[in-house]
């Protein structure tokens, strides 16, 4: 088992190191200066607008910060921002109105009705905003979660990435900020999960739905691609709507491209162990195609990332050597993933969290079991709303 685990872990490290060199970055796409980006995107059609759509539920603390960032965007003269307060039980709506401060580019609406049957709240809000934006003539739709922070060139560079790649969707992967040790154990696994399993250079050129990688925190669509794939109405009940909408685009023969958003976008998704458990509990157990897929993923995680370090500690001879190899490969993949996601020099805390990867794997398996139980019992809740 140590040999098999080391082989799997080594393959993940090799992919992660490859992705360090081949994953495109948002900063690679320079925004057009003094030229309308949309004219460059569609040179034979009239220039339209870039619409930024922000769904928000109980985000009174984070949404004003994002609005401040969006007001500071550069090189997007046609930008409009649509915000829907999705039935918040806090002061999100009032905070958004105050932050927009009369800026005529911003439209802030409150939806006090529950989502229609067969819809989740985020998708319903996104669909409503996209309809309003498309009716206003938007040629590019950008969906950004309310807890994301963006730099002043993020929107213009996302539009430039659509133009340069010819893709129907550019998914910008924000750096995932982690503060507490619970966050440090779990949050880096998001980027690491695709860094160690998918060659992004291949994925970005493929139309195979199974190789799509996307992050719903920051998605940029062309108008034609979004409409052809059915938009959010086609993923109304999905708990992994970002991946499913990317797959729908590929089925409609539009390419989807993942880019690292480091230095231009960042997000702190959860701030406590309770939020981590609730956040992952609502979707993780449904992400792998049912009970069989969940069992396979859990077994592979144990084999590749828990067996090797255990054997390295208690094994003997050849098995112990392979255990150390497997453990070192896992740490290498985490270091590579961290560099791609955050850039810069790796500080002591980040190196330490990479070295604790076996505990991250154990926490992942525990969250997977927790989410599977919640899914079976239909007991998951998020922000005061049951997840069905």
From TrEMBL:
Instruction: Spell out the InterPro entries in the cross-references.
Output: Glyco_trans_2-like (IPR001173), Nucleotide-diphossugar_trans (IPR029044)
Q: Does the keyword Membrane apply?
A: yes
Report the residue ranges that make up the Glycosyltransferase 2-like domain in this protein. 52-226
Matching entries from CDD domains are given as: CESA_like
Domain of life from the UniProt record: Bacteria
Q: Which residues form a coiled coil?
A: none
Query: What keywords does the record list, in alphabetical order?
Result: Membrane, Transmembrane, Transmembrane helix
Q: What is this protein called?
A: Glycosyltransferase 2-like domain-containing protein
- Organism whose genome encodes this protein: Hoyosella altamirensis
């Amino acid at each position: 088992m140590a040999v098999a685990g080391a082989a799997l872990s080594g393959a993940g490290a090799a992919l992660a190191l490859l992705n360090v060199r081949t994953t495109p970055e948002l900063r690679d796409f320079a925004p057009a200066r003094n030229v309308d980006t949309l004219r460059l995107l569609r040179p034979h059609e009239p220039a339209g607008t870039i619409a930024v759509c922000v769904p928000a539920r109980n985000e009174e603390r984070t949404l004003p910060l994002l609005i401040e960032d969006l007001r500071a965007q550069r090189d997007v003269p046609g930008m409009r921002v649509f915000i829907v307060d999705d039935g918040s039980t806090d002061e999100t709506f009032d905070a958004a109105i105050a932050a927009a401060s009369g800026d005529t580019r911003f439209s802030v609406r409150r939806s006090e009705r529950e989502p229609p049957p067969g819809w989740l709240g985020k998708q319903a809000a996104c669909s409503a905003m996209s309809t309003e934006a498309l009716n206003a003539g938007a040629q590019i739709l950008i969906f950004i979660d309310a807890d994301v922070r963006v730099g002043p060139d993020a929107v213009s560079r996302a539009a430039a990435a659509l133009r340069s790649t010819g893709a129907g969707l550019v998914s910008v992967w924000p750096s995932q900020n982690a503060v507490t040790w619970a966050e440090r154990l779990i949050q880096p696994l998001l980027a690491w999960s695709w860094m160690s399993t998918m060659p992004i250079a291949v994925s970005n050129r493929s139309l195979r739905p199974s190789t799509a990688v996307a992050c719903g925190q920051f998605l940029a669509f062309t108008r034609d691609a979004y409409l052809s794939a059915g938009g959010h109405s086609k993923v109304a009940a999905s708990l992994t709507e970002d991946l499913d909408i990317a797959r729908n685009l590929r089925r409609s023969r539009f390419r989807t491209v993942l880019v690292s958003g480091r230095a231009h976008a960042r997000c702190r998704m959860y701030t406590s162990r309770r939020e981590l458990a609730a956040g992952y509990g609502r979707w993780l157990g449904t992400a792998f195609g049912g009970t069989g897929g969940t069992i396979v993923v859990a077994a592979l995680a144990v084999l590749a990332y828990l067996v090797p370090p255990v054997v390295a500690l208690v094994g003997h001879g050849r098995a112990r050597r392979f255990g150390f190899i497997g453990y070192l490969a896992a740490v290498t993949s985490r270091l590579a993933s961290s560099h791609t996601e955050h850039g810069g020099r790796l500080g002591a805390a980040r190196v330490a969290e990479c070295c604790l990867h076996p505990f991250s794997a154990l926490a992942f398996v525990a969250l997977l079991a927790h989410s599977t139980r919640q899914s079976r019992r239909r007991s998951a809740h998020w922000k005061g709303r049951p997840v069905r």
